[in-house]
Amino acid sequence: MLRKVMLCFAIACLVFGSAVAYAGEGIPEEDLVAGFVYIGPIGDGGWTYMHDLGRLEMEKAYPKMKTFFAESVPEGPDSARVMETFVRNGAQLVFATSFGYMDFVQEVAKKYPKVKFMHCSGYKRAENVGTYFGRMYQARYLSGIVAGKATKSNVIGYVAANPIPEVIRGINAFTLGVRKVNPQAKVKVVWLFSWFDPGKEKEATLALIDSGADVIAMHADSGAAPQAAEEAGVYVIGYNNDMSKYAPTKHLTAPVWDWGKVYTYVAGQVIKGTWKSEDIWWGLKEGLVDLAPFGKEVPESVKEMVKAEKDAIINGKHVFVGPIKNQKGEVVVKDGVAMTDEELLGMNWFVEGVEGDVPN
């Protein structure tokens, strides 16, 4: 499982968010070793693939440091064993790249207080544990505008991984974008209860198409949904990466990651001795999230609309500003009120326009 490649979150944030500690002296670049724990294979074309590109971007910025990684590590005790193996092999910096690693990061970090750990999408921090994620909901909102303009049936399907606030927040932001330009459209959600399962992703896509969806969006880690949409002749909004290679004629755009922005920043802090336990939550402004290039069938007028909204967000516009209604039509965010980060991190309800349930 372990491949050496040498030279090559929730309301609980309020509880754990106060941990800010400086880690002491820096580590020379040539002595720095970093390990990456991946939930999927690096060839998944999505989530893990983009994290690995980020690792390589960090290596390019700091060519004297060394890295290694383990792919397809389950969100369970195996992840703790992998992280301990990293440390025994000299890692002073460990990146754990999936939400379910959270408690195991805490467990291992307690054993190795001199090692710095960074956990992606979690909310628990400690003196030697920081967290990082991106405001992907901003790019989701923009992609919703594209989808809302593209649908003719006013039914948009959403292939969703696991029912945690990160995914729910993305669905809601996407739906707000859809209904900004098409108030009659609905977003149907099918849950996978998995991050990476190409078979399920394809089945869910086809089920949504059978239910009337003429645009598919996704929060899943492979290119299976775009492939299925392409084969069915249905438009698709990808995720993680520019997935146009999976749907060359039907790919409209995709909310995408540039993890190298974070990894290069963190490595630089460790080298300079300025690393501290913090929660990094960057967005469009910092370039951690963005949209993939538009497909040929996206009209210029839609591109211009998306650009205007993107510029507004970069300049401070909030995506989640009231009035916002829930699925029952009740106003849950009052007119002119922006939701706080804490509220976004604990989001467990759907906005008006979403069809589907949030499982307990």
TrEMBL record:
SUPFAM superfamilies: Periplasmic binding protein-like I (SSF53822). Residues 33-316 form the ABC transporter substrate-binding protein PnrA-like domain. CDD domains: PBP1_BMP-like (cd19963). Residues 1-23 form the signal peptide. GO terms for cellular component: plasma membrane. Coiled coil: none annotated. Pfam families: Bmp. Keywords: Signal. This is Nucleoside-binding protein.
